Each structure stands twice: as C-alpha cells, then as structure tokens.
Amino acid sequence: MRWILIVSLAIVAVVVVGFSIGPGRLEQSLNQVLDHAPYAISSEAKSLHADLVVGDLHTDSTLWARDLTQRADRGHVDLPRLREANVALQAFTFVTRSPRGQNYESNDADAPDNITLVALIQRWPVATWSSLTERALLQARKLAQIESDEPRSLRVLRSRQDLDDVMRARAEGVPMIGALLGIEGAHALDGSLGNIDRLRDAGVRMFGLHHFFDNALGGSLHGTGGGGLSDFGRDVVKRLDDRGAIIDVAHSSEQSVRDVLAMSDSPLVVSHTGFQGYCPTPRNISDELMQQIAIGGGLIGVGYWDAAVCKVSPAGIVGAIRYGIDLVGSDHVALGSDYDGSTTVPFDTSELAALTQEMLNQGFSEDEIRKVMGGNVLRFLQKALPVNGA
Ligand SMILES: [Zn+2]
User: Fold this and answer.
1) If you measure from the C-alpha of residue 316 to the centroid of ligand 1, how many angstroms do you get, rounded to a whole number?
2) Is the pTM here over 0.85, yes or no?
3) What's the gap in Å between 9 CA and the centre of ligand 1?
C-alpha cells in the first residue's frame, strides 16, 4: 500500500506542477523556432510560391492545448499560419505515447509515458488516460470539429472526392486546407486489429507503425532490439493493405521496413526523416532502404530539425532535399516538417516561402520545386486515398 501512496502522491505532484506551469508554457518550452531575422523573399520566389501546391506530411499540432483556428504566439502550425504560407495539404499525425527520457538510440518499451502527463495536464477525458486509441480519436475529433465549424477552412481528406473538392475550392480562391489524418505509431490500436476500422471511421488514412519504442507490431528504429515485424505487426500491415490505408514507416526499424516492403505492394510513406548519407544520425535509415522505398513508389518527407537534416536552416533543409532528389529522384521527395513535434526549427509554417527562395538560390528547376513543395503529395494522395469515403 505504501508504494501506491507514494506513486499517487508523485503523480499528483507532477499534475499540480503541470497545471501551475500551464499547458501553454509546456508547449512553448518544447516547440521552438530559432531566433532569426526575417527571411528575405524575392518577388520571383513570392510569385512562384503563391502558385505552388504546398503540402507537408507531418505535424503533431493536435497534441497541444490550442485552438488551431486561431493564430497562436507559440508552436509552429495553426490554420491562419498555414493560409499565410499557401499550404493546401497538411498531414496531422497523432502522438499517443512517448517514453520518458526519449532519445534516438534506445528506449525501453516499459519506460513511463510522457503523453499520460500531457493528457492529465491538458485535462483530456478519463477515457484517454489508459487507452491510446482514445487519445488518437480525441485528436481526430479536434479536426472534425474544425471541419464542421468552418467547412471552408478545412476538409478532412477521407477520399479522393474530398481532395478534389479542396483543390477545386482553392482554384476558386477559397483557401481550404486538406487535412490528412495519421497516427504516429500503431500502439494507438491498443493491440486490436478492430481499432483500425474505428480510426478509419474517424478519418485516419495514414498509419505510422512505430514511434520511439518497440511496440506490439515489432521493432522501432529507437527501440532496444532492432527487430522486424511481429506476427501482430504482419496482421496489421495486411489489414491496412486490405483497407487501402497508407502505411508510414517513419520511426520503424530497418528490419521492420524491410519486412513491410517484402509483404506489401503499397507505396510507403516516410512522413518525416532525413537522409543517412547527408546527415548520419540514428534518426535516419540507410540510403539503400530509401531507394527501395522510392522504387516501390514511396514518398519521403524531409524534416526541418537537427537529427533529420543536421543543419537547422533553410540551406540545411534544402541541402537534404537536394541530396534526396539525387538519391531517389524528384518524384519521391516531399516536405515532412515534424512541426509541433517537440522540435526546434528555423521557421514556423507561415514562413515556408523561405524554402522556395532557398531552392531557387540553390539552382533547383521550377519543376523540382513544384514537386517537392507539395506536387508529389497531391499526386500520391490522388492515388492512395480511397475513391469513396468509406
Ligand atoms: Zn516523429
């Protein structure tokens, strides 16, 4: 009984401290933008940027206690800032568990969970305290609520029809944003294949298999064993294929990625990453595996933070993109910011034209810029989303 009391008191103490700091301060300390002078954008870059389809494969914004319809003075993404940057397509990815002491080398699957504290501090419903599926569903509901309150601002991309509607609205001058819903790690299934359909019913179309720790599906890139897919992992991949869902292998171990490639013909997404040959950190899988993903028709989102691209600047990010194009071809490289993912980045989403400018500076062709900034995401989703919303 004594240890139960001690553990309870410790949890109460953390929550009390959390409340007194406030969810805003918590987020502010985790999602940072490097101090910088305004990036100079030429009129050529401005007019090209305004004419792009801009898309991003990864942001964790729904984790935080913010109204995403309002411009915030913290974090990296909200609808006003997406509109400022002419963003058409944004993947919102739901974090449901992250281990205390999170690192890129090795995390114990049994480490205490930080997101439980986030849930308590942000006063999420009791159902989310013990169920990771409920944590994902809560985040999906935040976007569904925005869609229902402001249908001209945001559309959840359940089908190709939704994607067509978004692109048509934008062509008519309505800056509607298409939201691709994803999970960051299929521990969000709570170990049940049936939860794939619950999440799909809530609009989730992209399923990340892993996050920072080995889970019931098998090995994470930052777990302890570097193992491949478990039997349950294979069952999940098969069910996702049957449902026509998009599989995201960001954070999966190299063996897990190989196992998925061996059993699935679906093009894979690596929603947020860098390239090992450009930035040799344990966050990035091998160049050879990236080439295999591209050969299978996959799409690789380049992130903006240190462990992905090593140099946290527009030049550093665009250097990684150049490296990626040379490695796998311009049809397979996209943006995958990892905004609001406890990252420190050189600019928030409102300043995305800095990348267009830097690509011009580095001699990218207009065709390459159009593809990487979002054309590839649009083309990928036109094939990967279900024809109907079912
Ligand atoms: Zn991540």
Assistant:
1) 19
2) yes
3) 31
Please determine, looking at this structure, whether the domain spanning 45-384 carries the CATH number 3.40.630.30: no
Q: What is the DSSP letter of 112?
A: P
Q: How many CB atoms lie within 10 A of CB 71?
A: 14
CA of 341 to the centre of ligand 1 (A): 7
Cα separation, 77 vs 341, whole angstroms: 11
Q: With 60 as the cut, is the pLDDT of residue 324 above it?
A: yes
Residues 6+ apart with CB under 8 A from 251: 184, 185, 208, 209, 210, 211, 212, 220, 221, 222
Cα angle: 102, vertex 196, 378; to 5 degrees: 80
CA–centroid distance, 250 to ligand 1, in Å, is 7
257 Cα–ligand 1 center, Å: 16
Per-residue pLDDT for 12 more than 60? no
- Taking alpha carbons only, the member of 138, 118, 145 closest to residue 198 is 138
Neighbours of 101 (CB within 10 A): 11
Q: Kindly give the distance from the C-alpha atom of residue 60 to the centroid of ligand 1, in angstroms, as a whole number.
A: 8
C-alpha count within 13 angstroms, C-beta hemisphere, residue 382: 10
Q: In angstroms, what is the span from residue 93 Cα to ligand 1's centroid?
A: 9
Is-contact 181 92, C-beta < 8 A? yes
Q: What is the biggest distance separating any 2 CA atoms in the chain, rounded to whole angstroms?
A: 69
Helix H or strand E segment including 88: strand 87-95
Report angle CA 229, 230, 232 to the nearest 5 degrees.
Answer: 115
The token pair that represents 316 in the structure block: 């550093």
Instruction: For the chain, report the end-to-end CA distance as a whole number of angstroms.
Output: 50
Using pLDDT thresholds of 50, 70 and 90, give the confidence band for residue 27: confident
The CA 148 to ligand 1 mean position distance, Å, reads: 28
Domain-wise residue ranges, the chain: 45-384
Instruction: Find the 333 Cα to ligand 1 centroid distance in Å.
Output: 17
Give Cα 170 distance to the centre of its chain.
23
- Tell me the backbone φ, ψ of residue 301, rounded to 5 degrees: -90, 125
Gap from CA of 350 to ligand 1 centroid (Å): 21
